[in-house]
Amino acid sequence: MTDWFDEHVPRHVRTLDVYQPGKPIEELERELGISGAIKVASNENPLGPSPKALEVLPAALSQLHLYPDAGGFALRRAIAAKLGLDLAQIALGNGSNDLLYQLVLATCEPTDEVLSHKYAFLSYRLAAQVAGRPFVAAPTTPELACDVDALIAAITPRTRLVVLGSPNNPTGSVVTKAGAERVLAALPPRALLVIDEAYAEYAAQYPEVDHVDGLALLRSDRRVIVLRTFSKIYGLAGIRIGYAAGDKAVLDVLGRVGRTFHVSSLAQIAAIAALDDDEHVAKSAAHARAQLERMRAEIKGPGVKVYPSLSNFVLIDCARPSTAVYEALLRRGVIVRPMAAWGLPGAIRVSVCRDSELPRVIQTINDVLAS
Ligand SMILES: Cc1ncc(COP(=O)(O)O)c(C=O)c1O
């Protein structure tokens, strides 16, 4: 098998990093022989799916024999109206990750570089590697945030896509308005700036913290593409739906590399309803903010640092190898995400949970960090 692999699989695929998603809670409980575990490992919305989305889904089931609307018109129209953009400035994806992969395929020649930073969301690297395009990771600030000067220094004439999460996963850090403008000013002629705003609705409740508004930036500069998702605050991670907002010429090319019918009818219908669910968004955002404040105030230990975050998770520097911390937490029924694969071997990432679960999550982490 190894010979076959070496002989037949292209080099850029042989050397691919494999994204390791968090295991389902049932699988871990079975493996460990435990029950009542709490999973805070995948940045999901613990308040559940948007109730408005749940309301419309049953009626859609009887239409499942029909193909979905490949153009996604109703949802794109709804998103465009909400954001004050044209229909042609919105593209749909099977999650926002899907759109990132499409962007790389649609815009990068084989030697064009995808640029981000060392602690950026892993998908940016993967999207480049899957397409066989070089990925360049600029150094970050000591606080693990995007270092705009270092990022600009890493730009070359071959840079085609600069991808920045704001807030970024797993650091929770944001790109400032001025920082994003400086990156734009430094882009080579053919390059685009992709701002991944998977957690935008959480970040919106921190007007006191300077962070880029991707949509405002794209209104002033055609080279900006904003990625958004229904997986986080709308609670629809399982149905897979996200969108890109940007220049219509760029988004039109995405349609050429994407698969037809890659966004299901249920996803489109759920997202249209969720888009109007201001109550769920407001509740989820306030809930996340309150929980992050408690985690930052109450999680403690020798040398331990909880990073600031404008999202629905925190990064914790455990000041020791975090795989052992992860395993100790697992045995106590708290499932976090160890960050070694992300280049942070001393850190874990902890997502928000139900309010009834938070005291146990904090206490268990503190117990393990104190031991
Ligand atoms: C920064 C960031 N971007 C994108 C995604 C993926 O979103 P989707 O589920 O829409 O593919 C995530 C999910 O964890 C994320 O953290």
Short description:
The protein is globular. The chain is of the alpha/beta class and 371 residues long. α9 links the parallel β5 (159-165) and β6.
Report on the architecture of this protein.
The protein has 371 residues and is α/β, with parallel strands linked by helices. It has two domains: 8-48 and 279-370, Aspartate Aminotransferase, domain 1 (Alpha-Beta Complex), CATH 3.90.1150.10; 51-277, Type I PLP-dependent aspartate aminotransferase-like (Major domain) (Aspartate Aminotransferase, domain 2, 3-Layer(aba) Sandwich). 41% of the residues lie in helices and 14% in strands. It is built from 16 helices and 13 strands. It has a seven-stranded mixed sheet with strand order 2-8-7-6-5-3-4, sandwiched between helices. A four-stranded antiparallel sheet has the order 9-10-13-12. It has a two-stranded parallel sheet with strand order 1-11. The longest helix has 21 residues, at 278-298. The chain is globular, with a radius of gyration of 21 Å. The mean pLDDT is 95. The site of pyridoxal-5'-phosphate (PLP) has 13 residues, from helix 6.
Comma- or semicolon-separated keywords:
371 residues; alpha/beta; Aspartate Aminotransferase, domain 1; Aspartate Aminotransferase, domain 2; 7-stranded mixed sheet; 4-stranded antiparallel sheet; 16 helices; 13 strands; globular; binds pyridoxal-5'-phosphate
Summarize the topology.
Elements: H1 2-8, H2 11-14, H3 25-32, E1 38-39, H4 51-60, H5 73-83, E2 90-93, H6 96-107, E3 113-117, H7 122-130, E4 135-138, H8 148-153, E5 159-165, H9 177-186, E6 192-196, H10 200-203, H11 214-220, E7 224-229, E8 242-245, H12 248-257, H13 265-275, H14 278-298, E9 305-306, E10 313-317, H15 322-331, E11 334-335, E12 337-338, E13 347-351, H16 358-370
Parallel strand pairs: 1-11, 3-4, 3-5, 5-6, 6-7
Antiparallel strand pairs: 2-8, 7-8, 9-10, 10-13, 12-13
Helix pairs in contact: 4-13, 5-13, 6-7, 6-12
The structure holds pyridoxal-5'-phosphate (PLP).
Pyridoxal-5'-phosphate binds next to helix 6.
